[in-house]
Amino acid sequence: MEEKFPRGLWVRLIIYVAVGHLFAAFVYLLFTLGGQSQ
Prior knowledge:
- The chain crosses the membrane at residues 9-31.
- This is DUF6126 family protein.
- Keywords: Membrane, Transmembrane, Transmembrane helix.
- InterPro entries: DUF6126 (IPR046129).
- By secondary structure, this protein is mainly alpha-helical.
- The protein contains one helix and no strands.
- It has one helix at 7-37.
């Protein structure tokens, strides 16, 4: 089994996915707290 992608690409991909999920969770939390306050 040979690797098709270099190691740096996997690290970058994992970082992008983690940051994307954190950002989505932050936006979701903002909307949830904003909706409760009204």
